Each structure stands twice: as structure tokens, then as C-alpha cells.
Amino acid sequence: MSKYTFEEKFEAVQRILDGMSIHESARIMGVSFAQVQKWFHLYENHGWEALRNGGASYDGAFKIMVVEYMHSNHLSYVSTAAYFGIKSHSNVAKWERIYYEEGSEGLLRKKSRGRPPKTMEKNKTVSKKKELSEETKEDLIAEVQRLRMENEYLKKLRALVQERIDRENGKEPPSSTN
Prior knowledge:
The protein is an all-alpha fold. It is 69% helix and 0% strand. The protein is built from 9 helices and no strands. It is elongated and about 80 Å long. The chain starts with 5 loop residues before the first helix and ends in a 10-residue tail after the last helix.
């Protein structure tokens, strides 16, 4: 659900149509310039109905067309979303990421919406633990030992560098009480 009602969006856009700047309309409403600008562009391109709340569903072919249109016309996410009447520019960004990572096939696949059920999350955690336990303990122990040695080396190096700086600045090195 949207944070702002249709009436609030309507009033913000109507003030702009009446001659007020987008900045001033945003200030009166107490929202960002970008938010009011988005509403204004939605109205300009698609009319008042585009400001109504409610989720839309888009098919893969539409998503591909949006991403390719955005690229060929060198548009931003916000401009592209406004042009196509997409309520959230973050959808366009997500579609572009999928397009680059998986190609157009990624956008054509039906994706499940929302969070997976708890049982699926639990099973995922169990399988991750199982995968981790299959790693060889020797490799992990060797890696930890190597990192500890590296840390010790860096500590000693830092101490030597500090000692040299102190010597060059005429300071006495701290005496060791071993």
C-alpha cells in the first residue's frame, strides 16, 4: 500500500498545474522533490488514474520492452517508469539487473513473489549447514592458522615502523618489561 493517498497526490500535482513549482508543492506537503516530480510525470504521461494506488502485474515481454526502450533512448529509471506508467522506478532497476544477469529469458520466467514460506527458509539453513560441514576441516584450520600468522606479522611490522618513526622524531622507545 502506498504511503500517500490519491487525494494527496492529486493536490500536489494540481498545485503544479496551477502554476506552483514542484519544489514548493513538495515543501507544502512535506515530501521530497523527487516524489512529487514522479507523481507529476506519471500524471503528464498517463493522466490522473496513474496516481491511484494498487499493484500492477507486468509480463516478461513488457519488462524486456521497457529495459530495451530505456537503453535505446538513454533514459533514467525514473523517466522510464514515468513514461510507461510504472509506479516504482525500482522495478525498472530490478528488471535491468535481471536482464543483464540472466538475459531476456530471466524476465520471461515467472518468479514467485514475496518471502518464501518459513519451512523453505528452514530447509535452506539446514542444507547450508550440511554443505559447510562437508568442507575439509584441515583446509579451514590451515586457513585460520595462516591468517593468525599474517596478523602477527602485521602487528610486528607496525610496531617496527612506529619504533623507527619515534627514533627519527627523537622520542625514546617504550621500554619492555619482560
